[in-house]
From TrEMBL:
It comes from Ephemerocybe angulata. This is Transposase.
């Protein structure tokens, strides 16, 4: 078997995380990485993942089709100095959808002061927890 089913969700998670990284966005510990560092860390992380699990064929596929320099420029967000407006707009729309369904479901048209109170006291602590 090329890739056992048990490893597929983790590989998909890694690729997704590597796709969305960009020098504009800080890393979890507040570090700022440039595009070369993002690529190096992403390739190293995927290689380590495959090596530790004995997935040589998967690593060969990942390198040839996703992580080699030629292919990286085609799909990774960090390969460009600009962010796609479409992708950014989708993120903002998703945030507002989550906000409306999780925190504002009882308030179809909240007043501005009430919305700010909900953002400060409910949304921000949940975001910081995550």
């Amino acid at each position: 078997m090329f890739c056992p089913a048990v490893h597929r969700p983790a590989i998909l998670h890694l690729i997704t995380r590597h796709f969305v990284q960009h020098p504009i966005f800080p890393q979890r510990q507040g570090q700022e990485w440039d595009a070369d560092t993002i690529r190096y860390e992403s390739v190293f992380e995927m290689y380590t993942f495959c090596y530790q699990r004995g997935l040589r064929e998967v690593w060969g596929y990942m390198w040839a089709n996703w992580y080699c320099p030629k292919m990286w420029r085609l799909w990774a967000r960090s390969a460009s100095q600009y962010l796609s407006r479409l992708r950014t707009t989708m993120g903002v729309e998703n945030f507002w959808r989550q906000l409306k369904h999780r925190f504002l479901h009882d308030y179809p048209r909240p007043r501005l002061d009430q919305l700010i109170w909900i953002l400060v006291h409910n949304v921000t602590p949940k975001y910081l927890e995550r």
